[in-house]
Structures are given as structure tokens and as C-alpha cells.
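Supplementary Note 3. Input sequence used for the single-chain structure prediction.
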Amino acid sequence: MIRIAIADDHAIVRRGLKQIISETNDMVVAGEAGSAEELLTLLRSATFGIVVLDLTLGLRSGIDLLKHVRSELPSLPVLILSMHAEGLFAIRSLRAGASGYIQKEEAPEELVAAIRQIAAGRTYVSSAMAERLAHELSHGDAATLPHERLSDRELEVFRLLGQGKSVSDIAEALNLSVKTVSTHRSRILEKTGFRNNAEVIHYVVTTGL
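The predicted structure, written as C-alpha cells, is reproduced below.
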């Protein structure tokens, strides 16, 4: 029996995941969390075969949380579940240690297949993403989109800037100093070529970040 921990900050999504998994005979939701802190506490208190992790838990980046989980439990596989298109975050998630990436719009059967594949020790991505990965391996990994030039922390700040958050709001949300966030903002503008927050907001909204 595959013991699954699910982490999503929307109760209705967690309920849907539990319903899907309850219809199988080889897996069970053995724990659930609605925040990063709840997930870390859960994983420290019991043993699981896989974690299904939402890319965003509140204002906290799932990538950042993924790295934390991997540092504490390096052998525990994590499947990233996201509303965002694969092209935006799948490769970044895999580099951060995820064993797979699946969009919330996929059919329930695909989610079940992804969990089984990862629990068996393999990696899960869609066929389209597998082709992209193969292409990048053979042609080099050139970051072509502005957000792909950013580090994980810079991307986290970038997305919050794109939501209209102020530097002080972001500092409080990420538990960073205002000076550190301001430095990240300066580097973001330099790397992306955007001139101000308004251009960042427009990009984040139009790309669905």
C-alpha cells in the first residue's frame, strides 16, 4: 500500500485528491497538510511513500518547500501538483529534486498513474515535457524567457512583485529583510530587462505566473 501525504492550501482540492485516491486499491492518503509548517510537522511524525505537493502553499513557494523536504528526507519522492503549465515550472521543479510534475487539469487516472510511477522509483513528466527535456539535453539549456533567467528565490520575489506586493510586504511574507528583497528586485530587473514593477506585473499576469 502506497502511503501518501498531500499538501494543498485549499481544502476542496485535498478532498478531491482523497476521493480520487480512495477509488484505488493500492494507495491511501495517510496524512494531509494545508501549509508548509503542517507538512513538515506531518513528515516528521510518520512515514510516507510519496508526497503530493502543491506548487504554492499560501505565499510560500513549493520549490522552496521541496528543497526543505529533500534536505530532511532525501529518499522521499515528491510529486509537484500545479495549476501552472509545465513549461513554466516543471524543469525548475525537477532540478530542485521533484520526482514528477503534473497539472491539476489532468484526468484523475493520470494522477494515479503518476503516483504509481514515482512510487516505483521512476520519474513522471508528460510526453510533451519529456520531448522538451530531450531537446534541451541535446541542444543545450538556454534560458529564453525572462523568468527562466532567475534563481529560485528571485523567481519567488518576482511572482510576488507581479501580484502587486510591495518590497516590505514581500520581506514579511518570506521572512527576509527589506534590504535583501530590494537587492533581489534590482537583480530581477537587471536579468529580465524590465524597467519597473508595472512591467513585472504585466508579464506575470499575461504568462500566468
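The domain at 2-138 is CATH 3.40.50.2300 (Rossmann fold). The first helix runs from residue 11 to 22.
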